[in-house]
């Protein structure tokens, strides 16, 4: 197992429990203030929980949302810092990341763009070859054009190494194809936790005439009504077909996340 | 951690080296009081070495970067404290050596604070004080001001009112010479004067009888026999320097303990509250909030100490 969290409370977080197997890629989603950063800081060991137990197996690297770096450090200095403060260090890998994304090595990070600073943070985190990699809003500083490339490169690295990756985001549209597990936080409560495939298989959307009740089995997550039709997103162990004029549709990860977040507000 | 400390603090070390060189130079110049030249050294350690050490990391959030590596927070700080403490020790030795040739053996107590042990004690105490203020306030300027204030008060109080009482003073007295004979001073030239005044027949201090108004005949009639002097002999100088050193070392150790404890209490990280989040229209309909818990997660694990 990569990460164990059991009954953890800290500030906004209330009684969170989940396990993430090693080598899994988990998306941690939730609105701002839902407790994503608190949860990641707990996993990173930067905070201690008020109650409950947190355990991350192996060496952990954490990249905070604001990508803090020493302003007078160059990229080379930052890598040396990583080399001197980690038990394992892969200089080639770290330098490779910087050259791939064209980050100047000799300029003080205070004079680099937010995106370049983010790449230095990633390079240090990847260079330390962690068993668990925690990324808080990793793409927030990046140009939209390179987000896909960065995501793919990060996923490639963690797949090669069997690294357990947890990345938080509030941009739901960036999720598809990234994570194999989902953690959904709303106001400090863990609403959804599980494998993406299982979650998609256990949620279904019913669309049909205006109605106050769902036409099929399952717990209604979200109901939407317009003048002409009703739509129910339900959670059910095994989706069943519904009678005409109702139609059942599979849900996308984005639909599922948005529905849960919308209800939680 | 030596490389990390050097890379992060090399300008501080270089600046202090310059200041130490100036202070040593000033020593060589005549008529410069010791407290101006050397009194500043411990204050520099407090204000510029200790106070920013953690506070600046908190302010610029670089502690998140530093503590996200394998090195633990405690070892990170211990590495810095050891490396910077060694540098301060070296500077104190340099200052001591620079002061050696100029100390006046005629009045050894005047150069009390130029001794190696006091210099080391002030520097370590200042550094630890700044660090504790840094860990507690997490604000560089506040920590600088606070540590300068506490450092100054501690040093002045001990130097002016504490030091002379480290050991009970030597008490000496002598009957006054008959009129016409010169009074011979009882205070040795290398002694530190503590108290003096009228002595009675037993040599004990006596309050001056008010009605006499300094008149010798009246004083003698009221039992005044001679004069006493309480002083610390020059031979105690090194002992007193060691006592003062010990006091500051104990204070420094306590402050270091405070700093490390404050560090371990955990990071007060800023809650996320930046850009607008998920678009959330007003929802309708019922909802089931299922808290999904992995059935595997039930096993109880020993509590992990936060790193």
UniProtKB/TrEMBL annotation, chain A:
PROSITE patterns: ABC_TRANSPORTER_2
InterPro entries for this protein: AAA+_ATPase, ABC_transporter-like_ATP-bd, ABC_Transporter_VariousFunc, P-loop_NTPase
SUPFAM superfamilies attached to this UniProt entry: P-loop containing nucleoside triphosphate hydrolases
Domain of life of the organism encoding this protein: Bacteria
Keyword match Endoplasmic reticulum: no
Membrane-spanning parts: none
Keywords: ATP-binding, Nucleotide-binding, Transport
Positions of the ABC transporter domain: 3-212
GO molecular function list: ATP binding; ATP hydrolysis activity
Pfam families recorded: ABC_tran (PF00005)
Keyword rRNA-binding recorded: no
Record's protein name: ABC transporter ATP-binding protein
Source organism (scientific name): Lentzea tibetensis
UniProtKB/TrEMBL annotation, chain B:
GO cellular component: plasma membrane
Keywords: Membrane, Transmembrane, Transmembrane helix
Annotated region described as Disordered, given as residue ranges: 268-307
One matching Pfam family: ABC2_membrane_2
Sequence intervals crossing the membrane: 12-29, 35-55, 76-99, 119-136, 141-161, 238-260
GO MF annotation, one: ABC-type transporter activity
Annotated signal peptide: none
Acetylation found in the keyword field: no
Domain of life of the source: Bacteria
The protein's name in its UniProt record: ABC transporter permease subunit
Organism name: Lentzea tibetensis
